[in-house]
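in:
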C-alpha cells in the first residue's frame, strides 16, 4: 500500500509541474503575440481559455498513456524528454483539428504555434530541473527503492557495482538469490531462498521489486521464478548478462540503467483494458450478427449427423482461477466423456463426422463469442483449461490466469502444433508483452490459421 502511495505522489507531483509549465507557456505566448500586428486579430485572453483547456486535457491524457508519470530511474532521461515532446506534438495537432470542427477560425494560429514552441522548450527545461533534483535526492538517500537481485554470483556482483557507482538511480539491494550454476531439479532450498529474499520482504513492504540477470543455463529456473513473481504481482526486470560498466551499454545498445528502470513496466494499463474490452464486445457482436446464417447450417448439420444436444458446455478455469461454463458446438458423440485429455493427431474415435470438419475449421468454437460478450473470456488470450488439468499445473503454468482466456491466442497462430510444455513460452510472452497492437496482429493471423486449418485437430 505504501509503495502505491509513493508512486501516486511522484506522479501527482510531475502532473502539477506539467500543469504549471503549460499554463505559464500559454500566458507567455499570449503576452508575446498580442502586440504583434500580423495575421488575425488576437481576441481577449478569456476567449482562448476553452481551447487551452482542451489542449491541456489532451496533453495530460497523452502524457499519462505514455507513462510519463511513472517513477523513472535512468541516467540520461532522453527517452522521457522525447516522450514529452511527442505528447505535446500530438496534443497540438489534435487541437488544431478541433479548431476546424468547432469552427474557431478566428483564433490566432500564430498564438497556438507559439504556445506549442514555448511549451516544448519550457517542458524540457522544467523536467530537466525536476529530474536533476530527484537524482540529487536519491544520491543523498531519499526516494530509494529497495530491490532483490536474482542471478549467478558473478552477475549479482556486477549489478551491485553498477548500483554503487550510480547512486542517483536510487536502487539499493536488500536481498539476493544466487541461482545454481546448472539446470537441474529445483530444490526446496532454492524455493526457500526465493521465499526469504523476495516473497516475504515484498509482503512486508521491505522491497519494491526484483532485478533478474538473464542467463541461458538457468532458463528453466527463471521461467518458474517469473511465474511466481507474476502470480504475486511483484514488479521485476530482466537485465542483460553482458554489459560494459564504463559505458553502461549492452551488446544490443540498451543501457543498463534503462534496463533497471520501470520495474512495473509489465503492468497492464487501464486504458488498454478498456480498449481491449471495447474491441471484444464490438468484434463479437458483429461476428455474431454476420455469422447467424452459418449458425443455422451448423445446427442442422449436427442434428442430422448424430443424436444429442447441439451445444457442448463444459467447466473451464479462467481469469484469476475463476470457473465458468464454456460454450461450443458439439463435435463429439453424446456418449463421449465430458472431461478427458484430447489425443493428439487424427482419428479420434469420439469425434463425429461433422465434428471433425468443425474442429478442422475451428467453427466449433464460434459459440465462445457468447463467453466473450459475457466477460468470461476475451478474443485474445491463453487457452482456457479444464479443472482437472489445472490441478496438475506447476507454478509456472499458473501465470496463465493473470489474463482472461481467449478464443484465439499467440499459441494458436504460432505454436498450436506443439505440446503444452513448449507452448507455455507463447503464453508467457503474450502476458508480458500484451498490447492492443499485438491483439490485432493475433486476430489477423488467426484468419489464415483457421482457413488452412493450421495445427487443428
Amino acid at each position: 500500500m505504501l509503495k502505491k502511495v509513493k508512486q501516486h505522489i511522484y506522479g501527482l507531483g510531475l502532473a502539477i509541474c506539467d500543469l504549471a509549465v503549460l499554463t505559464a507557456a500559454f500566458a507567455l505566448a499570449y503576452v508575446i503575440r498580442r502586440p504583434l500586428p500580423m495575421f488575425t486579430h488576437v481576441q481577449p485572453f478569456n476567449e482562448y481559455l476553452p481551447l487551452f483547456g482542451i489542449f491541456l486535457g489532451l496533453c495530460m491524457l497523452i502524457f499519462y498513456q505514455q507513462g510519463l508519470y511513472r517513477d523513472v530511474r535512468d541516467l540520461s532521461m532522453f527517452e522521457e524528454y522525447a516522450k514529452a515532446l511527442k505528447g505535446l506534438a500530438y496534443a497540438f495537432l489534435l487541437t488544431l483539428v478541433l479548431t476546424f470542427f468547432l469552427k474557431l477560425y478566428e483564433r490566432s494560429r500564430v498564438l497556438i504555434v507559439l504556445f506549442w514552441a514555448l511549451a516544448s522548450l519550457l517542458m524540457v527545461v522544467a523536467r530537466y530541473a525536476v529530474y536533476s533534483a530527484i537524482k540529487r535526492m536519491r544520491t543523498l538517500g531519499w526516494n530509494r527503492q529497495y530491490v532483490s537481485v536474482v542471478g549467478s554470483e558473478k552477475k549479482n556482483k556486477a549489478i551491485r557495482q553498477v548500483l554503487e557507482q550510480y547512486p542517483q538511480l536510487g536502487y539499493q539491494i536488500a536481498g539476493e538469490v544466487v541461482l545454481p550454476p546448472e539446470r537441474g531439479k529445483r530444490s526446496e532450498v532454492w524455493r526457500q531462498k526465493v521465499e526469504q529474499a523476495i516473497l516475504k520482504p515484498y509482503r512486508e513492504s521491505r522491497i519494491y521489486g526484483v532485478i533478474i540477470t538473464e542467463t541461458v543455463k538457468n532458463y528453466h529456473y527463471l521461467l518458474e521464478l517469473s511465474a511466481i513473481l507474476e502470480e504475486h504481482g511483484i514488479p521485476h526486470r530482466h537485465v542483460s548478462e553482458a554489459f560494459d560498466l564504463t559505458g553502461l551499454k549492452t551488446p544490443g545498445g540498451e543501457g543498463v540503467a534503462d534496463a533497471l528502470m520501470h520495474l512495473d513496466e509489465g503492468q497492464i494499463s487501464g486504458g488498454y483494458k478498456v480498449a481491449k474490452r471495447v474491441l471484444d464486445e464490438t468484434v463479437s457482436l458483429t461476428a455474431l450478427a454476420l455469422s447467424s446464417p452459418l449458425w443455422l447450417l451448423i445446427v442442422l448439420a449436427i442434428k442430422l449427423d448424430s443424436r444429442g444436444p447441439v451445444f457442448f458446455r463444459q467447466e473451464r478455469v479462467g481469469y484469476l482461477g475463476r470457473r465458468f461454463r464454456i460454450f461450443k458446438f458439439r463435435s463429439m458423440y453424446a456418449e463421449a466423456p465430458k472431461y478427458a485429455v484430447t489425443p493428439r493427431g487424427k482419428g479420434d474415435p469420439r469425434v463425429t463426422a461433422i465434428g471433425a470438419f468443425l474442429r478442422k475449421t475451428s467453427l466449433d468454437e464460434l459459440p465462445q463469442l457468447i463467453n466473450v460478450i459475457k466477460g468470461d473470456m476475451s478474443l485474445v488470450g491463453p487457452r482456457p483449461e479444464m479443472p482437472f488439468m489445472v490441478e496438475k499445473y506447476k507454478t509456472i503454468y499458473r501465470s496463465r490466469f493473470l489474463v482472461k482466456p481467449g478464443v484465439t491466442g499467440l499459441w494458436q497462430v504460432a505454436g498450436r502444433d506443439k505440446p503444452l510444455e513448449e507452448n507455455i513460452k507463447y503464453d508467457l510472452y503474450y502476458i508480458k508483452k500484451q498490447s492492443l497492437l499485438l491483439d490485432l496482429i493475433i486476430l489477423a493471423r488467426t484468419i489464415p490459421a483457421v482457413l488452412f486449418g493450421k495445427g487443428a485437430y
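note: Residues 270-305 form the longest helix (36 residues).
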